[in-house]
Design goal:
With about 120 residues, the protein is mainly β. Strand 2 and strand 3 form a beta hairpin. It contains two helices and nine strands; from the N terminus they run E-H-E-E-E-E-H-E-E-E-E. The protein has a single domain, classed as HesB-like domain (Hypothetical Protein Aq_1857, Chain: A, Sandwich), CATH 2.60.300. The strands form three sheets. Strands 3-2-5-4 form a four-stranded mixed β-sheet. It has a three-stranded mixed β-sheet with strand order 1-6-7. Strands 8-9 form a two-stranded antiparallel ribbon. Helix content is about 15%, strand content about 40%.
């Protein structure tokens, strides 16, 4: 039997939110400037990898119902409400290492990560 105490409703919580480094915000703004109709990026979480969850970035031309918007330095980052328990407090960074360029996620909720860095567990 399910009681009210057993039900988790993400909308009932106060979230710390997500932040972007200046490099991540600048890169998102560059992407938006290059593509007409693009509003920003959505960060989803999916069950994946050996540690449990993976990050998924998508281009946003229209927000989805239930998306939360985090805006910084003109860059817009949408997150589905149901992902917040896993990534609340995350800082999104954009780093260049030699020829490689990639978004990095500094997630305070991640208790472990797989060896290749593609997934995390909470």
């Amino acid at each position: 039997m399910t009681t009210q105490a057993d039900i988790f409703e993400p909308a009932d919580y106060r979230w710390r939110g997500l932040t972007m480094t200046p490099a991540a915000a600048a890169h998102i703004c560059e992407l938006v400037a290059k593509q007409p109709g693009l509003l920003g990026i959505r960060l989803r979480v999916k069950q994946s990898g050996c540690a449990g969850f993976g990050y998924v970035l998508e281009q946003v031309s229209a927000p989805e119902p239930g998306d939360l918007l985090f805006e910084q330095q003109g860059a817009r980052l949408w997150v589905p409400l149901k992902a917040m328990p896993l990534i609340d407090g995350t800082e999104v960074d954009y780093v260049r290492d030699g020829l490689n360029q990639v978004f990095k996620f500094h997630n305070p909720n991640a208790q472990n990560a797989c060896g290749c860095g593609e997934s995390f567990g909470v």
